[in-house]
Amino acid sequence: MQLKSCCIYSTGVFSVLFLILGIALVLSHVFPHDLQSFVTKKIILENGTEAFEAWEKPPAPIYMQFYFFNVTNPLEILDGDKPAVVEVGPYTYREYRLMEQVNFQDNGTKVSAVNTKTYIFVRNMSRGPESDLIRTVNIPAMTVMERIKDDPLLSNLISSYMSGTDLGLFTTRTVGELLWGYEDKLLTFVQLMMPGLDNVFGLFYKSNASNDGDYVFFTGQQNYKDFARVDTWNGKSSLNWWSSDECNMINGTNGAAFHPVITKTEVLYMFSSDLCRSIYGVYEYDVIVKGIPGYRFIPPSKVFANMSVNPANAGFCVPAGNCMGSGLLNVSLCKQGAPIIMSSPHFYQADEKFVQDVIGMKPQTEQHQTIIDINPLTGIILQAAKRLQINVYIEKLSGFIQTGNVRTVVFPVVYLNESVLIDDTSVLKLRTVVIEQEVMVNIPFILIGLGIILGVIFMILICRQKVPESTDAERQPLLTS
Fold it and tell me: CA 151, CA 167: separation in Å to the nearest integer?
């Protein structure tokens, strides 16, 4: 009887202990903190670590897709009509991006490297071959005309040459030529007066099998939040194109990697050499990619908003005070003076005016928004899509008959979709981490559950123990015959 009572009360004691321990673990977050601490120590840029290998040679396949806007009414545009374009694409390239010339500095707290990118055409993922013809704005001609428009003598000379060689505001070129370069007649002629000028033009000329500059990154050794953060680019810790210190800041990573232990309230900064500036993303909602949980981050509309909406963007108005509408970024200063305007595809999140100015613009969130899906514990990118559009600012120039009566318009040329989806091998490794995370997070709740179950058992045993057993006399009938 004493042994039975001991077992009953032991059950009660263990019930209370499990409940106290479980609740204490839930309130103290001991296991999640231990796991996060372990991950932050593992994910640093150091020879031999999986994080370094993935940073140096990304295992997931990256694709770059180009969608061109083919001009359908060139003569009408010169007469003053709205431009009409038709989207043509995709033209898909497999992108290989390796970190090369890697050199650790400052006792392993920093690492220098160049990010070499190579593009290989993938015909079976493309609308057509690279030899497809596209009619678009003659960017070299527009650039030259804009540069010399205030010089009447030179303007007359260039205009006469263009008329004599049948060069106009629009040109028809192959996809390959527009992307990777072709020898331009007008640039060749101008080169006679400016010997240092390159006579080859391409939207991504000299970008294949090349890099965008020298980087120095933090390794994350001293602070996990500094993992892969850019310290300097081309030897500088800030830019000099914009008119404010804030806009010239180089913030965040280069967009290819992020630090571990990311929260929903965090702002993720990225430096983009394509945009010649830093941007940022904010949490939108939870996602599941190949069974792995993640957070989706997107650049909010404020990133490219006009200074009237976001005063911090005043520094991006170039020249100072010359501000474009929301959703646009004038990058002519960092593109050798070419009148290039960057935006999201189809002027997504831009002022409605720019959408209405060009027939054929149909902005859609799902297709045209830039997204980054990240596993919050490890910082590993599960899925991402960088979507940018290259536009040209065109206007009527009195010294050039080639511009006719064209409207002043931001003219879309091409948009790109640079995308990546985590590979299956990385998914298997990450799934193990996710399972470990779920087990460690749920241990306190398992203890609470055991405490409740033992508590129920304890109560049942106590109740049964308190019911007295009847005697033989009590079991006899009250009345006998």
Answer: 20
User: For 166, phi and psi rounded to 5 degrees?
Assistant: 60, 40
Query: Strand pairing partners for 10?
Result: none
Helices 139-148 and 152-164: crossing angle in degrees, nearest 10, is 160
14 vs 8: CA distance, rounded Å: 10
pLDDT surpasses 80 at 239: yes
Pick left, alpha or beta for residue 394 (phi over 0 → left; psi -120 to 50 → alpha; otherwise beta): beta
Ramachandran angles phi, psi of 393, nearest 5°: -85, 115
For 169-212, write each residue's pLDDT tens digit: 999 999 999 999 999 999 999 998 888 889 999 999 999 999 99
Tokens of 265: 């309230």
**Residue 10: per-residue pLDDT:** 64
Q: What is the band of 343 on the pLDDT scale with cuts at 50, 70, 90?
A: very high
Cβ-Cβ contacts under 8 Å for 100 (sequence gap 6 or more):
113, 114, 115, 116, 211
Question: How far lies 252's CA from each of 256, 259, 279, 475, in Å?
Answer: 11, 10, 9, 85
Residues 317 and 243 sit within 8 Å (Cβ to Cβ)? yes
The answer to whether 91 touches 80, Cβ cutoff 8 Å, is no
**Strand bridging mode 62-71 / 182-183:** unpaired
Instruction: For residue 119, count CB atoms less than 10 angstroms from its CB and return exposed for 0-12, middle for 13-18, buried for 19 or more.
Output: buried
